[in-house]
């Protein structure tokens, strides 16, 4: 056969030259080096072998070894992952890293043990900004009435509606066309994704709102993980952690570069000031409170304790 | 070798009379065994998720719209308008068929529905006017295949989903090539009937033409709604399909009053059954597409076609000849499903515009609908108009050649497709 | 027993017609809401997709029973009866094998997704994979019955070919039926050029 048992297939939905892809490449290099080539890693970009939700299901069933997925897609498997969908949970890269790489992150990954998945570590998609084709967004009022695409996620829908815009849940495949044809006015996305998916070609304005922080979970099929020797298991975890640095650095370096390129292509950019962000948070408080109720209280308590321990952070640098 | 296993098991299973959908499952299973990834979950996961797609929901909605238009009298009124407009010139009924086919194409997503409606309405009239019956049937079969070229088109939807190409862009790019095929057919028809002795019906009075237009306007505005709706982003392709279905339902029930509420159930069941057949095929094809993807067979194929990579025209020609050959033996949907995952990596590697390729590919697939031995549209026309299949096969040749010439022109002069596509699609 | 079976297939047809109608309402409703009220039905996309999946597989069960799936009969129809029978039996054994695999895979995935919730509706994703169980049990029985009859020699010659070459042969047959029912009257009216429009 061609794909021996020693091949790790990694499914992810972005293009190969996106930070996820660079992370997967790095992960593969480390695994192949440390196992002396006993184990190969092959990435499948662009959802070639499945979208996020079916890929998670495939990993649970043992027909896929690794899935790199947004935590939003994991919340179907464990509702507690919905905590990362809440707006303004993290305010800076530093804060996000400290919590995802710390005790809470480890505890979250362990929650998946009983679901046929082994969580290796967290990477990132980054902070979500707001794009649209109508007007520059400088204050809360500017969002009023805009038709903003969200994923089909009750938290995000409620959040966008609470800000006075109209959330339009649309499948991702319809977004570019929807924006191009002005069926919808805008969407939220990270700088690298707005750039890579050419969303900026069909939008006029981008506002740095840092509305959500999207972590990315690297999940291995538990069946496959359990079949490895303890030494190989350690290699997997180490490789994920090392590749994490590569992935996050690439993502954070790409953000300002992507913005620069998009501005050069005519996209107008605004940055929300502290007062506006405070107004956003005020509007979003009921949404956060409502959806916190559906999440395991232990997770919420740990998160709040850890955030308090970190203390007030500086302004977000997740551009 | 991987490709040989895939094609061998697929053809083998099809030859012994297995439904193509099951033959695709069997070839997927054979591939799983060969590539050593055998697991029942791969079958279930890919088949079920293969049907779970919002863009593909355009398929049932276009099927439904087509059903309603034929049952509800919309197709008939379009033919009447064309008849009043060009029925009186020499061989005019042929031009009526081509014109009506173009308009019907802009309403429906499938060649078969269009050809069936035109054959039922026009073949009896054409024979009465003195045309050779088989020749009339041949023209109508060839006109019917404009259906999947001019938007909306189920072929473009399936190709767009599998190849990950914007369906809206494909739709808008198909408009002019569809009309060019129509022009090609008109030339071939003029050549064919120049020696026939015909009874030409008298020119219609302006009042008759107005009357036909007034009746037909309800049906005629639908293409405009769809094309402008897509162009100016009122809706996505899937939504344009549902709008077409709801609009034709409204016109059929409340304006023309030809579709009784009691007939609705039958219309929905037929559309749902046809959808299930097409979609089960699409879903089954995903299994082998998945195994082909993880076996990286595409890379070998790209290597194989490397000598052609330097010359896009030659490469396109080679690919189009392949499609013609496969198209003789297979229907449109399976051909798209089987060839798209194999050809797209080559298209990307060679730097060919995927929208341009998509148009050529679908035009070619549409022509496959009138090439024997498996020419679905030929079967439909022969059945509806009661023409002997062998006579029809002989009569369709000149029209098929005209279409292949137009396809050839589009390969040699890509601007024929890309220029209007940019103009319309933006 | 026969009545039970007929009832089951009538139920499937009613269900697929209803599913299609609901899909139309959901997707069209979303377009209307977007323009008229700047809003949408949250579950519209997810629910309509799931109905679409169920429509596909329930409709495919009906099509299998009615020999409505696409295929190529060029070779088979030229074979003598014995050859046709052999091809049919081999086909059905292989189809049964694919169906068993489909069942096993759907079973595992249904169990895995029992507790998994869909993003918009919150419904269990087992509803999605469950269609695989309904499909494979129903079609498995249809194929087994076909095999039994093939082995018992209980099939007429044209029952030995189980595929159609055209996607819409069914529609074609219906159309011919309609034309016959109208007694040619309507066709003649429409075919009369001098009358123009006929209503
Ligand atoms: Na069309
Ligand atoms: Na053909």
TrEMBL record, chain B:
Pfam (any one): DctM
Regarding protein family, the annotation reads: Belongs to the TRAP transporter large permease family.
Q: What is its main location?
A: membrane
* Assembly description: The complex comprises the extracytoplasmic solute receptor protein and the two transmembrane proteins.
Give the matching InterPro entries.
DctM (IPR010656), TRAP_DctM (IPR004681)
Alphabetical UniProt keywords = Cell inner membrane, Cell membrane, Membrane, Transmembrane, Transmembrane helix, Transport
Q: Which organism is it from?
A: Xanthobacter tagetidis
Q: Which GO terms describe its molecular function?
A: transmembrane transporter activity
Q: What is the lineage of its organism?
A: Bacteria, Pseudomonadati, Pseudomonadota, Alphaproteobacteria, Hyphomicrobiales
What job does this protein perform? Part of the tripartite ATP-independent periplasmic (TRAP) transport system.
Q: What is this protein called?
A: TRAP transporter large permease protein
Identify its membrane topology class. Answer: Multi-pass membrane protein
Is Transmembrane among the key words of this record?
A: yes
Looking at the record, the residues that make up the TRAP C4-dicarboxylate transport system permease DctM subunit domain are 8-416
May I have one GO cellular component term? plasma membrane
Q: Which subcellular locations apply to this protein?
A: Cell inner membrane
- Spans traversing the lipid bilayer: 12-35, 47-66, 78-100, 106-127, 139-164, 170-191, 212-234, 240-257, 264-294, 314-343, 355-375, 395-413
TrEMBL record, chain C:
User: Which family does the record claim for this protein?
Assistant: Belongs to the TRAP transporter small permease family.
Its predominant location is: membrane
| Name assigned to this protein | TRAP transporter small permease protein
Q: List residues traversing the bilayer.
A: 12-35, 47-64, 85-105, 125-144
Q: Which domain of life is it from?
A: Bacteria
Q: What GO terms describe the biological role, i.e. biological process, of this protein?
A: C4-dicarboxylate transport
Q: What species was this sequence derived from?
A: Xanthobacter tagetidis
Checking PANTHER family in the record gives: 2,3-DIKETO-L-GULONATE TRAP TRANSPORTER SMALL PERMEASE PROTEIN YIAM (PTHR35011)
Does the record bear Transmembrane in its keywords?
yes
Relate the assembly described in the record: The complex comprises the extracytoplasmic solute receptor protein and the two transmembrane proteins.
């Amino acid at each position: 056969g061609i794909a021996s048992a020693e091949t790790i297939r990694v499914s992810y939905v972005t293009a190969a030259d996106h930070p996820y892809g660079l992370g997967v490449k790095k992960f593969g290099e480390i695994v192949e080096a440390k196992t002396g080539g006993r184990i190969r890693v092959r990435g499948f970009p662009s959802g070639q072998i499945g979208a996020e939700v079916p890929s998670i299901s495939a990993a649970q069933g043992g027909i896929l070894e690794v899935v790199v997925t947004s935590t939003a897609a994991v919340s179907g498997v464990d509702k507690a992952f919905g905590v990362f969908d809440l707006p303004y949970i993290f305010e800076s890269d530093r804060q996000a890293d400290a919590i995802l790489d710390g005790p809470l992150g480890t505890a979250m990954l362990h929650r998946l043990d009983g679901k046929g998945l082994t969580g290796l570590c967290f990477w990132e998609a980054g902070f979500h900004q707001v794009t649209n084709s109508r007007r520059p967004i400088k204050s809360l009022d500017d969002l009023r009435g805009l038709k903003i695409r969200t994923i089909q996620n009750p938290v995000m829908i409620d959040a966008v509606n609470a800000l006075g815009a109209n959330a339009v849940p649309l499948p991702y495949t319809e977004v570019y066309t929807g924006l191009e044809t002005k069926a919808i006015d805008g969407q939220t996305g990270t700088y690298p994704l707005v750039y890579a998916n050419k969303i900026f070609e069909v939008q006029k304005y981008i506002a740095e709102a840092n509305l959500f922080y999207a972590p990315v979970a690297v999940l291995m099929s538990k069946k496959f993980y359990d079949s490895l020797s303890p030494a190989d298991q350690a290699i997997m975890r180490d490789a994920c952690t090392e590749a994490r640095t590569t992935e996050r650095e690439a993502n954070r370096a790409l953000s300002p570069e992507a913005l620069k390129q998009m501005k050069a292509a005519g996209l107008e950019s605004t940055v929300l000031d502290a007062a506006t962000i405070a107004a956003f948070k005020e509007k979003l408080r009921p949404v956060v409170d409502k959806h916190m109720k559906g999440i395991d209280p232990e997770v919420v308590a740990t998160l709040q304790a850890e955030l308090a321990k970190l203390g007030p952070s500086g302004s977000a640098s997740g551009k | 070798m991987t490709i040989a296993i895939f094609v061998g098991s697929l053809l083998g299973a099809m030859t012994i009379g297995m439904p193509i959908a099951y033959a695709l499952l069997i070839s997927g299973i054979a591939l799983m065994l060969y590539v050593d990834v055998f697991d029942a979950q791969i079958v279930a996961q890919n088949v079920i998720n293969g049907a779970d797609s919002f863009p593909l929901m355009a398929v049932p909605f276009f099927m439904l719209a087509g059903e309603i238009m034929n049952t509800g009298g919309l197709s008939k009124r379009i033919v009447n308008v064309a008849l009043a407009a060009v029925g009186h010139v020499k061989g005019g009924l042929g031009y009526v068929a081509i014109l009506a086919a173009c308009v019907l194409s802009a309403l429906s997503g499938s060649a078969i529905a269009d050809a069936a409606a035109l054959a039922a309405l026009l073949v009896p009239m054409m024979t009465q006017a003195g045309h050779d019956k088989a020749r009339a049937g041949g023209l109508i079969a060839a006109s019917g295949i404009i259906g999947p070229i001019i938007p909306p088109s189920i072929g473009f939807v399936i190709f767009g989903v599998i190849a990950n190409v914007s369906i809206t862009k494909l739709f808008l790019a198909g408009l002019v090539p569809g009309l060019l095929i129509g022009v090609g057919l008109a030339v071939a028809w003029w050549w064919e009937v120049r020696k026939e002795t015909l009874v030409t019906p008298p020119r219609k009075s302006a009042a008759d033409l107005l009357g036909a237009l007034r009746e037909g306007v309800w049906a005629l505005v639908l293409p405009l709604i769809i094309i402008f709706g897509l162009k100016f982003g009122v809706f996505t392709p899937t939504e344009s399909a549902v709008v077409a279905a709801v609009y034709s339902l409204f016109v059929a029930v409340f304006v023309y009053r030809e579709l009784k509420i009691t007939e609705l159930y039958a219309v929905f069941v037929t559309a749902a059954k046809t959808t299930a057949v097409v979609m089960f095929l699409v879903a089954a094809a995903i299994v082998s597409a998945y195994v082909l993807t993880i076996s990286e067979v595409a890379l070998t194929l790209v290597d194989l076609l490397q000598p052609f990579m330097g010359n896009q025209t030659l490469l396109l020609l080679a690919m189009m000849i392949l499609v013609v050959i496969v198209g003789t033996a297979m229907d449109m949907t399976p051909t798209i499903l089987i060839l798209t995952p194999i050809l797209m990596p080559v298209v990307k590697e060679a730097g060919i515009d995927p929208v341009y390729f998509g148009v050529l590919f679908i035009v070619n697939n549409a022509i496959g609908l009138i090439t024997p031995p498996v020419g679905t549209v030929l079967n439909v026309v022969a059945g509806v108009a009661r023409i002997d299949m062998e006579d029809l096969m002989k009569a369709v040749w000149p029209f098929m050649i005209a279409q292949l010439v137009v396809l050839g022109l589009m390969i040699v002069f890509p601007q024929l497709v890309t220029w209007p596509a940019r103009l319309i699609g933006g | 027993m026969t009545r039970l079976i007929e009832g089951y297939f009538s139920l499937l047809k009613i269900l697929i017609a209803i599913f299609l109608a609901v899909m139309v309402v959901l997707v069209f409703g979303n377009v209307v809401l977007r323009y008229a009220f700047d809003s949408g039905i949250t579950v519209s996309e997810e629910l309509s997709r799931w109905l679409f999946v169920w429509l596909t597989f329930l409709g495919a069960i009906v099509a299998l029973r009615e020999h409505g799936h696409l295929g190529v009969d060029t070779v088979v129809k030229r074979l003598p009866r014995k050859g046709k029978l052999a091809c049919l039996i081999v086909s059905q054994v292989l189809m049964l094998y694919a169906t068993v695999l489909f069942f096993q895979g759907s079973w595992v995935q249904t169990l895995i997704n029992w507790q998994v919730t869909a993003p918009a509706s919150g419904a269990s994703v087992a509803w999605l994979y469950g269609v695989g169980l309904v499909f494979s049990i129903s079609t498995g029985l249809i194929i087994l019955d076909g095999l039994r009859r093939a082995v018992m020699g209980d099939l007429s010659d044209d029952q030995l070919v189980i595929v159609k070459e055209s996607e819409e042969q069914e529609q074609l047959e219906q159309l011919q039926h309609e034309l016959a029912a109208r007694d040619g009257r309507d066709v003649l009216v429409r075919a009369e050029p001098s009358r123009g429009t006929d209503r």
